């Protein structure tokens, strides 16, 4: 398991990305990053099996006769 991003690390990362943060935003950005990381970690645990990637979906090409 990785350690959570500290407010100082969030500030440094934002600065490297060209997005300097005001001092009062460091903590909120670090908390938001931790939340996003936890959601992504949960998604990585899902077994999608034979599910095709989203890029293979074409809107409007469903069978109108298909039973649900």
What brief labels describe this structure?
68 residues; mainly alpha
Description:
Helix 1 packs across helix 2 (about 25-45). The N and C termini lie far apart (about 40 Å). By secondary structure, the protein is mainly α. It has a domain at about 1-45. The model has no long low-confidence stretch (mean pLDDT about 85). About 45% of the residues lie in helices and about 0% in strands.
Pattern of helices and strands: HH
The helical percent reads 40-55%
The coarse silhouette is elongated
Q: Say how many strands there are.
A: 0
Region (Disordered): 48-68
Biased composition (Basic and acidic residues): 59-68
């Amino acid at each position: 398991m990785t350690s959570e991003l500290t407010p100082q690390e969030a500030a440094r990362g934002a600065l490297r990305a060209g997005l300097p943060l005001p001092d009062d935003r460091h903590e909120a950005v670090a908390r938001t990053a931790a939340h996003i990381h936890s959601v992504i970690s949960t998604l990585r645990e899902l077994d999608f099996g034979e599910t095709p990637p989203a890029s293979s979906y074409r809107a409007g090409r469903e069978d109108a006769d298909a039973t649900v």
